[in-house]
Write a structure and sequence with these properties.
Blueprint (H helix, E strand, L loop, with lengths): L10 E6 L18 H6 L15 E5 L4 E5 L33 H6 L15 H12 L16 H4 L2 H6 L27 E8 L19 H22 L7 E4 L8 H18 L9 E8 L10 H18 L85 E8 L1 H4 L36 H5 L35 H14 L9 E7 L2 H6 L9 H18 L3 E6 L7 H6 L7 H7 L1 H4 L6 H22 L9 E6 L4 E3 L22 H16 L8 E3 L53 E8 L1 H4 L36 H5 L35 H14 L9 E7 L2 H5 L10 H18 L3 E6 L4 H9 L10 H9 L6 H22 L9 E6 L4 E3 L22 H16 L8 E3 L62 E8 L1 H4 L34 H8 L29 H14 L9 E7 L2 H6 L9 H18 L3 E6 L4 H6 L9 H6 L10 H18 L12 E6 L4 E2 L23 H16 L8 E2 L26 H8 L7 H25 L15
Parallel strand pairs: 1-6, 4-5, 4-6, 7-8, 8-9, 9-10, 11-12, 13-14, 14-15, 15-16, 17-18, 19-20, 20-21, 21-22, 23-24
Antiparallel strand pairs: 2-3
Helix pairs in contact: 3-6, 7-8, 11-13, 13-17, 21-23, 23-26, 30-32, 32-35, 35-38
Length: 1474
């Protein structure tokens, strides 16, 4: 054979030489001895044999028959055609690499019987003609330099016949004037030097049968070699007279010497000769080197197996010698067939259109297989048709911008699965599993090409044919063919550091690798052997040691290897091996299999040992992830480790009959067959291209092999830092058309109609920190506007998800979006006018700037283009709220937001405004304060003081949460006011997706911080991608059905416009009517007290009573205590008493949803008794109140209450502390005008006192709240006539009927109301004799005002639908006021209640005085005694009584004046009453 040799060979010819002594095989051509006969049997590929099918040809020039030799390694056996060409440097390239054939292949390619004993050796005359014709050059006349002695006359008489005809080739037309810089455009005139080396041995005399007596003459071999190169040199000098004298360095050995070993010596001698030759420019002159090589055994009498061993050995030596291969001078696939020596042929000339020596590349050669390759059982014609196979324009410096074609070196570490044990073994040949078929290894094998062997290197060579490092053939890690496959059969994780060290040393020492500059891909896969032995030494093979050993190997690579991408493949799910072992219908060597992996196979299915193995397997996998995701290997820009998890869950392949398919396994049923290696290679490849976080974790070997292409927009290998690919989205909408004509109404606006996009806001919209890398806190100051969820336009949707990138799928001419980084004033910010740190008061200025930019920019048709403007503001205000609560109040926030929206509404035509909620402060606190190791807590006061610094359960935090809700309510109220729906071409829509944020939580319960920038406050790109998706989905959802929750971990597909209504949704096209009911759905409260403990022992004094000491609650009163009308009626005419919601005694739900006094007390004592629930009498508990009750009914209610307590088995009457609330008087006031004497203030107080006396006499350990009657007239006057009381309510409260038109009557009613309140004040002094009983008057209803809403009108939501009773909100406000009164000292209690809503109004017991306040513990009695010791203790109640008498007298006079006007008293309709 003629083979290429050495990296220094510029152009290498390959010639096969037939040898004697080969086994018989039918020739490919018929023995009729003609060109046509030979050609008729060849594959129909451009008229000649395809070198991919017949990689090497034996040329029998006497019989004109063609014989195939074994195939060799390489992508279509031409990997040396792909070395890049360097200008004016020696071209390190060649023709084809020939890989060593397997024994089976050699056996298939036995040689023809007719050559046996023929004595055919190297016949120079015939061989020369064949060589010259194969080189594509013609000779008609010898052309030698004067004085040089050529050998053609003395060696080959046939040469004389060739010289009889003249050279017809014009040397001036054979090439360009400038020497070629590529081997593929090389003309004969470029050749400066011709040489040859040879391992062909001269055959013995065929007549001598005794090999020992045969003589081998070195001179014959030298003459043959010089004959060829001298004639070839003469031909070259015809085109280039300056060509140097040829050199032939044939081997000096004979049969006993290994010719291939001698070939290597010759190669070194030739290199040395060329370097020392002063006439040859070694770097720049072109050289034609011919390699004559024979791999056949001269021991033709030996057994065939011995001959095969000889051939294998020879090929091993040759493979280690050859670095480049170059074979043809004529277009590959169009070579002439061998010819007879008797034939006369004209030698060809270079053509004008192709005046160069032919190579595979410049021949446009498309190889195909001679027959399907059945050995590896992979799909035929596996091709990669990816549109982009090019490397980066410049060599990347970052591993996060690494393309597949940039990879130049490949290596691997691991065990026998990477070494390839048994990958090429035949079924049943268990012993052959010891053979390491490294060339077939899934992650690093390079045998043949992708058409026949699917491996990661063979796939990568489709992108970079010059890839180095892959293994070929068979052998151990130390064999030459292993190269950078340093996996060791039987290795465990503890062996990886040694492998890593050996791999690094190999790469450093190999001269073909530029260690510093070449990009490398290294695959590490280990763990099977550890799991197989874990039961024998659980400590040694523990998950911690397993991960630690992998870490040691990775540390070596990380510390020493530049420019490397490391695949860390997860250990496979090994438990499935049991299926193969246990299935008796599958042929497997079970004893061998069990010995290979005992810990997986020897235990019962449900055994503890097997369960432990499964758990260790899982921990191995988890530990792998944790090791890499720690960021330990992402500290350099040119190095990374990525976990490839496709083996995490493996489904055992099955046959059509449902049995385990052992064709995927080697004969030992443990290692992979070539079929499984191909599957693993494709799975690894696809994993490498899948974004981190979205990689396939389960592989099915049964699936058809599918090799995906890199994304054209994002063609990089996926790493943990370049997860932009994972931030892309797919839009599957088929209808992306705009309206037939530009719409004039915002309610008929399609996505494709949008031509301009803009945004206003703060740092979230400006994009601070979106693209910042972990731990780069300072970079959060960078404004990544091009990645902003609402206005960024970097890249494309498949790569970066933003609202503009979504809209660009509908309208490619969209404008206004921002790109890159920079401030709002930068040109690339365009219409993203958000400013970091901005507050609501600055929003109007942003709006004005935006409008001016749109008017001034030629890309925007201000009056005609439809615009989407997204507004998000509020976080900055909350961050500074505690510094000035008035400046940053909800009212001011409302005003500032309204001003900005008013400007847009007034000045911007054709606009849809998205108003987006801000991020909840509670979520911000949870992220920032919950990760002290990752978040800059020391800068909390600088970053967002009022949100991050308040202590948990503090009043400051409660106020912050309350004002946050007020901000959100004001946004909703502003939009739902209809203020911005007055124009046909403008609308503001509240997009509520951010209202409720579900933070991402990892499996271990910790927050997933990968969604946040390094400051833990700003969202990063992963977060922004979700924001953009959620915003888009909200824009297409009808009002009333919009999603109000954002789950950061959820998959949010991009919606498509509805076919019947393909519009961006507004109130009108959603058929949505804004509700007049309050947006707040529950009136619960946030209780932030920390002092919840009861007294150390049950107190005996009521003056030392803590809230937690209360065991029983009870109440007396009227319909306000039974909670009539607290909720809307169900259409019934009968009023419903919602006792469970009653302010003083209701116990429905919890404080978070229903604010009542019992629900507050349950925070202190969850075992509280007595409260009422629901609406039925049976669940009223100790709520003895009765609708329409008056003061005169209180004694009866008191006796009822005492009986209930005494009869309750749950109540310890003597020891349990009881809290009783009495509230009465509204019905007395409503009917006072009917009978002033009977309903006087004196009578009112007397009835209440009688009830208190009963309680005082009967109940030990009791605290009684007496709540002053509300200021009835003032309360209902405050409605401002906006709530009309139904007739039943008006009729039942006769004193209010018509009184509002008579100022004298209303004034008189107020006076009586005041007398009722004043009369109660003395009751606190009547029950001072007992230590365990107290009555305290709670005056919060003394002055009552109807609250105002944000627009200045009366907020009537505190009233029920009858405009007379209180709603649930009203009951909540009453409960809050009562509780706060109870904790306030007597004499300093709050005497008013304006019903303003807040969830943070509840007070807490103080540490100094944690008691419910009485006269004594308020020190009121002591202070009065010290102030005026001359005033007797009875003076106060007497003074009160005197005032009461004066009041009664005034009322009696008023009655006399009014009495004569009443002829008939009104009929009482006891339908609705307090």
């Amino acid at each position: 054979m003629l083979l290429p040799l050495a990296p220094w060979a510029e152009l290498v010819s390959l010639v096969g030489v037939g040898q004697q002594g080969m086994a018989p095989r039918k020739p490919l051509s018929a023995k009729r001895g003609g060109e046509d006969a030979a050609r008729s049997q060849l594959p129909a590929t451009q008229g000649g044999p395809s070198p991919d099918h017949v990689d090497t040809l034996i040329l029998d020039f006497q019989t004109a028959e063609l014989w195939p030799l074994p195939a060799f390694k390489g992508k279509d056996s031409k990997i040396y055609d792909r070395r890049p060409i360097r200008q004016q440097r020696s071209i390190k390239t060649g023709g084809r690499v020939i890989a060593r054939p397997s024994a089976e292949t050699l056996h298939r390619h036995k040689y023809p019987r007719h050559l046996e004993g023929s004595g055919m050796g190297l016949q120079p005359p015939t061989f020369l003609l064949g060589l010259l014709l194969l080189l594509g050059q013609g000779i008609t006349q010898a052309h030698t330099s004067p004085g040089e002695n050529t050998l053609e006359e003395q060696l080959w008489p046939e040469w004389q016949s060739l010289k009889s005809s003249l050279f017809s080739c014009n040397p001036k037309k054979s090439g360009a004037n400038v020497p070629s810089n590529s081997v593929h455009s090389l003309s004969p005139s470029d050749i400066k030097f011709v040489a040859a080396i040879s391992s062909v041995q001269t055959p013995p005399n065929s007549a001598t049968n005794n090999l020992e007596k045969q003589e081998w003459t070195e001179n014959e071999l030298l003459q043959a070699c010089m004959g060829v190169v001298t004639v070839l040199s003469d031909v070259i000098r015809h085109f280039n007279p300056s060509a140097l004298r040829p050199v032939c360095t044939p081997g000096k050995g004979v049969v006993p010497q290994n010719g291939s070993e001698d070939l290597w010596i010759q190669a070194k001698d030739l290199v040395r000769h060329m370097k020392e030759n002063q006439q040859l420019d070694f770097q720049n002159d072109w050289k034609l080197i011919n390699v004559f090589f024979s791999n056949t055994s001269q021991c033709h009498l030996c057994p065939s197996t011995q001959q095969q061993m000889h051939v294998m050995s020879s090929m091993d030596q040759l493979t280690s010698t050859l670095d480049y291969l170059h074979r043809e001078m004529e277009p590959a696939g169009q070579k002439d067939e061998p010819f007879s020596a008797k034939e006369k042929r004209l030698v060809k000339c270079p053509s004008q259109e192709n005046p160069y020596l032919f190579t595979y590349v410049n021949s446009n050669y498309l190889p195909r297989l001679l027959r399907p390759h059945a050995k590896f059982e992979v799909r035929e014609r596996m091709e990669i048709t990816c549109p982009d196979k090019d490397p980066s324009e410049t060599i990347p410096t970052s591993v996060h911008r690494l393309k597949l074609a940039d990879i130049k070196v490949i290596g691997a570490l691991g065990d026998s699965l990477t070494a390839g044990n048994g990958a090429g073994s035949k079924p049943g040949n268990v012993l052959d599993v010891l053979t390491q078929y490294r060339g077939l290894s899934w992650s690093v094998g390079g045998d043949q090409n992708l058409s026949s062997v699917i491996t990661l290197p063979n796939i990568l060579r489709e992108f970079n044919p010059s890839l180095k490092g892959f293994s070929v053939g068979t052998g151990k890690e130390s064999s030459p063919g292993a190269f950078l496959n340093q996996a060791v059969a039987g290795a465990r994780a503890e062996d990886l550091p040694v492998q890593a060290r050996r791999l690094v040393d190999l790469m450093k020492s190999d001269t073909s690798i530029n260690f510093q500059e070449d990009w490398k891909i290294i695959t590490l896969f280990i763990g099977g052997n550890d799991l197989c032995d874990v039961c024998d030494d659980p400590v040694h093979y523990s998950p911690e040691n397993f991960t630690g050993n992998i870490g040691k190997a990775l540390d070596i690579l990380h510390a020493e290897v530049p420019r490397a991408f490391v695949n860390l493949v997860k250990v496979l799910e090994i438990i499935n091996l049991r299926q193969l072992y246990q299935e008796k219908n599958v042929s497997c060597p079970r004893l061998i299999l069990r010995s290979l992996c005992p810990c997986v196979l020897k235990f019962d299915d449900n055994s503890v040992e097997l369960a432990a193995l499964i758990e260790v397997n899982k921990k191995y996998q988890e530990g792998t992830h944790q090791l890499v995701e720690s960021g330990r290997y992402d500290t350099r820009e040119d190095f990374t480790v990525v976990v490839q998890p496709f083996f995490e869950k493996v489904n055992l392949p099955k046959t059509p009959e449902g049995l385990p398919d052992n064709s995927f396994f080697a004969p030992d049923c443990f290692h992979f067959s070539g079929k499984a290696h191909a599957q693993a290679a494709s799975a690894l490849w696809n994993n490498m291209l899948e974004p981190v976080g979205h990689k396939t974790r389960e592989h099915s070997f049964e699936d058809e092999i599918n090799i995906t292409c890199p994304d054209q927009v994002w063609p990089f290998l996926s790493t943990y830092k370049n997860m932009e690919q994972g931030h892309g989205s797919q839009l599957l909408c088929s209808d992306r058309a705009p309206s037939a004509s530009p719409p004039t109404s915002v309610h008929a606006l399609r996505p494709a109609d949008i031509q301009v996009v803009a945004a206003l806001g703060d740092s979230l919209t400006a994009g601070n920190g979106i693209g910042s890398k972990p731990n780069e806190l300072a970079d959060v100051a960078t404004q990544y506007r091009g990645l902003s969820y609402s206005s960024g336009g970097d890249s494309y949707l498949e790569n970066v998800t933003t609202l503009p990138n979504i809209l660009r799928k509908f309208n490619g001419n969209l404008t206004g979006y921002a790109v890159g980084t920079g401030d709002a004033s930068d040109t690339n910010a365009f219409l993203n006018q958000a400013v970091p740190g901005a507050k609501a008061k600055e929003l109007a200025s942003q709006a004005q700037t935006l409008i001016q930019k749109m008017k001034d920019d030629h890309r925007v048709n201000f009056h005609e283009d439809w615009k989407v403007i997204t507004v998000l503001i509020g976080s900055g205000d909350l961050c500074d709220y505690c510094t000035d609560s008035n400046l940053y109040s909800a009212a001011n926030f409302f005003d500032h937001l309204r001003n900005a929206l008013d400007i847009l509404h007034r000045e911007v035509p054709r606009a849809l405004v998205n108003l987006v909620d801000f991020m909840s402060p509670s979520a911000v606190r949870q992220v920032f304060l919950g990760n002290p190791n990752k978040c800059p807590e020391q800068q909390a006061s600088i970053l967002c003081n009022c949100v991050l610094t308040p202590r948990e359960s503090s009043q400051e935090l409660a106020r912050l949460e309350a004002v946050t809700r007020d901000y959100q309510s004001s946004m909703r109220e502003l939009v739902e006011s209809g203020r911005y729906d007055t124009r046909e071409d403008f609308s503001v829509v509240l997009q509520p997706f951010f209202s409720n944020l579900r933070l991402p939580v990892l499996a271990d319960g910790h927050l997933d911080m990968s969604f946040f920038a390094p400051d833990c406050l700003h969202p990063n790109q992963k977060f922004h991608s979700q924001l953009a998706r959620a915003l888009w989905v909200n824009m297409l959802e009808p009002l009333g059905r919009k999603t109000d929750t954002l789950d950061l971990m959820a998959y949010i597909p991009l919606s498509c416009p509805a076919q019947n209504e393909p519009f961006l949704r507004t109130p009108r096209n959603s058929n949505y009517t804004y509700s007049t009911t309050p947006a707040i759905e529950n009136w619960g409260n946030d209780f932030l007290c920390t002092e919840w403990k009861p007294s150390n022992s049950v107190p005996t004094s009521v003056h030392e009573l803590r809230p937690a000491d209360i065991k029983v609650v009870a109440a007396l009163g009227d319909s306000l205590t039974t909670a009539v009308g607290a909720r809307l009626s169900n259409g019934s005419d009968l009023p419903t008493s919602w006792r469970g919601l009653s302010w003083s005694i209701g116990g429905d739900g919890s404080l978070e949803t229903h604010t009542t006094l019992p629900n507050i007390l349950k925070k202190f004592n969850p075992n509280l008794l007595g409260f009422s629930t629901g609406t039925r009498e049976e669940t009223a508990g100790l709520n003895v109140a009765v609708e329409a009750a008056r003061a005169r009914d209180m004694p009866a209610q008191a006796r009822d209450l005492v009986e209930r307590m005494k009869n309750s088995p749950e109540i310890n009457l003597q020891k349990d502390w009881k809290l009783i609330t009495l509230f009465i008087g509204s019905n007395d006031l409503c009917h006072y005008c009917e009978d002033p004497a009977a309903l006087s203030a004196g009578e009112y107080v007397q009835h209440i006192q009688q009830a208190l006396d009963i309680l005082y006499q009967e109940l030990p350990r009791a605290f009684v709240n007496v709540v002053e009657v509300m200021e009835l007239a003032g309360l209902y006057q405050g409605q401002g006539g906006k709530c009309t009381m139904p007739l039943p309510a008006q009729s039942n409260c006769t004193c209010l009927q018509g009184s509002q038109e008579n100022l004298l009557e209303i004034q008189e009613l107020k006076t009586v109301n005041w007398d009722f309140q004043s009369g109660l004040s003395r009751l606190s002094y009547q029950y001072l004799q007992r230590e365990d009983f107290a009555v305290v008057v709670q005056p919060f209803f003394k002055n009552t005002l109807v609250p105002l809403n944000n627009r200045g009108g009366a907020d009537l939501t505190i009233f029920s639908e009858d405009c007379f009773h209180f709603s649930e909100r009203g009951h909540a406000e009453m409960a809050i006021a009562l509780w706060n009164n109870m904790l306030e000292p007597v004499g300093r209690k709050t005497t008013s209640n304006n019903f303003t809503y807040s969830r943070a109004k509840l007070k807490c017991p103080s540490a100094e005085s944690p008691y419910i306040r009485t006269l004594r513990n308020s020190q009121l009695l002591q202070d009065q005694a010290e102030a005026d010791s001359s005033v007797p203790t009875w003076a106060v109640p007497v003074a009160v009584g005197g005032g009461l008498v004066v009041g009664v007298g005034t009322v009696m006079a008023w009655r006399a004046l009014r009495g004569h006007r009443r002829e008939n008293p009104p009929i009482s309709l006891n339908t609705v009453s307090f």
